[in-house]
Write a structure and sequence with these properties.
This protein is α+β, with helices and mostly antiparallel strands. It contains four helices and three strands. It has a three-stranded antiparallel sheet with strand order 1-3-2. It is elongated.
Length: 103
Amino acid sequence: MKIKRAPIQRSPVDPDTPLKRLEPEFPTDADLILLLSFRANLAAEQTYKQLRAALLGAGFRAPLDRYLIRSSGILRRVSRNRYRLRVYRPGLPTQHGCNREYT
């Protein structure tokens, strides 16, 4: 019996396009809302519920807010339901405005 494989799909992006142009712009609206949810205490931890309430209050819908919290480049998961802002260190390699590898 012969297995049929799906054909390889080509990317809709031109391979000569610089990667910098393909990166999403930082900061996004969701990143700004998450940043503002920490208020003046940027070193504090926020619970998942607090971050989610901030996004829902800004008009994001339920499935999207969970995704934004888990995939945000400015948040670092400390424990199961607690998050902290990532530390930004100028001069180190960055990804979306924060140093993922060094925090």
